[in-house]
Amino acid sequence: MLPEYKRILYATDLSESARMALRHAISLANCHGAAMTILHVVPDLVELMSGDAGFDIESHFSRAEWETINATATTRAKKKARERVREMTAECATDNPRCPVSGAELKIQTRDPAERLLAEIQTGNYDLVVMGAHGRGAFMDMLLGSVANKVVRLSSVPVLTVRLPVESAAG
């Protein structure tokens, strides 16, 4: 029996590979008559900066200062995500009058992207996850880890990862 996709989770980090993945999510949703949910996760700035800096950056500023910085960044990121989704909807509707993005539920969350995605997969009753992959390579993913890598390994449903096409080196 072939799989049926009725609920597709499209995860976006607003990158170019995520934009390419959207095309695949739309195609699959159209072919299967599936509903789409769009999820964008805004990383927590304190966690992100502390990890990148290699020390607890939170200890250098008051909790109130970090909460203000995080709230401002989160508000801006959510606004940008909504704008990008509107752009994608308009682009999709131009090419396809039955665009599933226009009826998609938009969820914007904060904190760790991989953990939020995995939690959404568990609670959302999805049949498929579609997301971009940056394709840094196996060594870099092993060394640094990646959201796509973690989601592929731990997801309870199939995950389609989409990379940008490799440009040919011929000149």
TrEMBL record:
Residues 4-163 form the UspA domain. Gene3D superfamilies: HUPs. Keywords: ATP-binding, Nucleotide-binding. One of its GO terms (molecular function) is ATP binding. InterPro entries: Rossmann-like_a/b/a_fold (IPR014729), Universal_stress_UspA (IPR006015), UspA (IPR006016). The keyword Nucleotide-binding applies. Belongs to the universal stress protein A family. This is Nucleotide-binding universal stress protein, UspA family. It comes from Desulfomicrobium apsheronum. The lineage of its organism: Bacteria, Pseudomonadati, Thermodesulfobacteriota, Desulfovibrionia, Desulfovibrionales.
